[in-house]
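Researcher: Next entry: MOT3 protein (Calonectris borealis).
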Amino acid sequence: MGRADPEEGQLPAPVKPPDGGWGWIVLLGCFVITGFSYAFPKAVSVYFKELMKDFHVGYSDTAWISSIMLAMLYGTGPVCSIMVNQFGCRPVMLIGGLLASSGMILASFTTNIIELYLTAGVLTGLGMALNFQPSLIMLGTYFDKRRPLANGLAAAGSPVFLSSLSPLGQVLLEKFGWRGGFLIMGGLLLNCCTCGAVMRPLDMGMKRKMEKAQDKYEAKEMLPIGGKSEEGISTTDGTKKAKKAKKKPKKGKKLLDFSIFSNRGFIIYTISKFILVLGLFVPPILLVNYAKDTGVPDTEAAFLLSIIGFIDIFARPACGMVAGLKWVRPHVAYLFSFSMLFNGLTDICSARASNYTGLVIFCVFFGISYGMVGALQFEVLMAIVGSQKFSSAIGLVLLIEAFAVLIGPPSAGRLVDALKNYEVIFYLAGSEVVLSALFLAMATYCCLNRGKKDEPPPEKNPSAGGGSDTEEAESDVQEAEEHSSDNHQPAHSTDNAVVAASEEANHVAEEQSGEGGGCPEGDGEVLARDGCNADQTVERDSF
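Model: Predicted structure:
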């Protein structure tokens, strides 16, 4: 997802994802970024008790640090989309890594809780948001056939880092205090810059090589005599510059593409995700306190979250592999619905668990279903909107999810305080997740699949392709003639060659318009000068 070419004023042509190669390095970077983005706000909670003592505040005051981080991660989605569309993924991720690191470093020198909100909360949260979203965009750029597996492996970074950062934070707290721990954590976040540096744009360099090879070939075709080949190359370069100058007024890529709201699949996905987030995060947040209220010791209650994380590590890549199967991938939306239904029913069936064994069984099944949801959520969105509009789509979806995050868990906490009953909360959260699953499955079947069956097949117009090729040929010839007329150097042989090539291009375009066939396109370049013989086609394809 490189940025728009400033010389041409338009987006470069999309390049086929390699599904490997440097993409595996991009996947590793996305794994690290996902781990930091989701696990870091939770891992910071190990410092809360020391912060409460130093700043003389309550637990709810310190808990706002994690809440602000998550709010920045979700709520700044459109801002990230605009920056990615304007500057590209790599610069945005480098800036985000510096912001995240500087936020934690500055937090180690704070003297009150408000300064912690601004540094560790706002600054670090914004930095992680500027890393998380571009990393997913780059992952979709480098993978197509293996994209479900890539998404599953990248999503596994969240449980892996959660199980690593929390014990590390405890060790740092004991040896260096919370200020030293924040300082070292800030240094660790500089690895986000390293991950951003490996996010190499896929399309720019490859397209320039193709254009240069095409220019040299066309110059040789116009003037095959060795002494005049340089004049042909200069003429072709001049024609290309004239075309670039003519294309400058064209409109570039939108900063935030709101046209995705005309996609019914995107509307269905967004509504389903909003309902899902209302109840998805409630059980793991209340699980430890629920276990303590049932008489489970503190250490065993805390171990329940480790069980969920351990199962989650293996569930996400496994689900990604299943989603990548040929007979499953066309129906990945239904697999996503099944994973949500599985998660919701787990919450409902485990609401009456009253002993440690029942809670362990709940954690196993919740870890599996939670991992499936985490592995499929962005894969389904990529499949709906495509990689070109994914940058805008994910920003808008995360913004909408931010409202659900701010509504769901706080509302559940207030209900617990009012009812003094966790069972009702588990029933309510599970019902919301089940509702989202049923809505996604039914809406996908009724509004999308049935709509495709009812639509008549598009009529084939054999002259449609010829018309567009004719217009392109006439435009290219006109630009070549304009450039040759402006050239005052004594290059009569070159001018004659351009005129001859123009007449030949017009002749080829007229034949193509009448017959509906013709030469293969040259990706925006002037059509072939010597017709469409088989030898020339093979040689052109080699470039």
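Model: Note for the record: The radius of gyration is 29 Å.
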